[in-house]
């Protein structure tokens, strides 16, 4: 089983599955969906066009991964592109999975039901830390997330400062709230990972502050750079 993860400008993450779904590959599929959901994107789209199965029972992996993403992270998982046989068998799990005929239909559902997503591209100048805070302010006010607004401002200030000082590249700030977490993320063109994700190494003060106010902090390498993100619970 081959899994490929793609991030796009809609705020969603697509997990493409290619191969046979079997007892030996179920763990791989579930791990790929879980990892994508843990970043709290607007949604996780699962492309089933390349998926083959041995028995209908193995599709429970897709149902359980969808349920876990929704319950743990508040992130919807939308499946699309299944062949007729797999689509028919997934009908047994209709209470747990959202299945669409193609990617366009899945994206339309994301836009209709997950509108809490904002993005801004910025240049690496010190004044743009203020612009990043302004985006967080706009999001928190629009979505009524006043309890986490100050912490979110602190997080985006530190993430933007790191991008400006160390990546020295244009960077993108994304703020989203698909469920119980507010996700604040900064993408830049540097492949150097922040030291907070390397155990046992002394961290900088700014990264300590991010850890102190966030429920989860992580970093993901992508083609052409990385995304550093933090999750803040919205129900505290």
TrEMBL record:
Residues 2-90 form the STAS domain. It comes from the Bacteria. The keyword Transferase applies. PROSITE patterns: STAS. CDD domains: HATPase_RsbW-like (cd16936). GO terms for molecular function: protein serine/threonine kinase activity. SUPFAM superfamilies: ATPase domain of HSP90 chaperone/DNA topoisomerase II/histidine kinase, SpoIIaa-like. Pfam families: HATPase_c_2. Keywords: Kinase, Serine/threonine-protein kinase, Transferase. This is STAS domain-containing protein. It comes from Paractinoplanes atraurantiacus.
């Amino acid at each position: 089983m081959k899994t490929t993860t793609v991030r796009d400008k809609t705020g969603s993450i697509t997990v493409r599955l290619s191969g046979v779904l079997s007892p030996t590959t179920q763990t791989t599929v579930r791990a790929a969906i879980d990892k994508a959901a843990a970043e709290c994107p607007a949604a996780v789209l699962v492309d089933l066009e390349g998926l083959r199965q041995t028995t209908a029972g193995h599709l429970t992996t897709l149902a359980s991964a969808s349920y876990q993403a929704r319950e743990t992270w508040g992130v919807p998982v939308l499946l699309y592109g299944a062949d007729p046989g797999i689509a028919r068998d997934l009908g047994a799990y209709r209470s747990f999975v959202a299945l669409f005929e193609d990617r366009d239909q899945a994206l339309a559902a994301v836009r209709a039901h997950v509108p809490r997503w904002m993005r801004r591209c910025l240049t690496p100048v010190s004044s743009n830390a203020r612009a990043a805070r302004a985006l967080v302010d706009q999001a928190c006010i629009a979505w009524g997330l006043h309890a986490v607004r100050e912490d979110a401002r602190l997080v985006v200030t530190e993430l933007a400062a790191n991008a400006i000082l160390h990546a020295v590249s244009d960077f993108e700030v994304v703020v989203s709230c698909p469920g119980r977490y507010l996700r604040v993320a900064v993408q830049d063109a540097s492949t150097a990972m922040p030291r907070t994700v390397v155990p046992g190494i002394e961290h900088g003060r700014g990264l300590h502050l991010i850890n102190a106010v966030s429920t989860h902090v992580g970093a993901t390498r992508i083609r052409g750079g990385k995304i550093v993100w933090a999750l803040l619970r919205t129900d505290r």
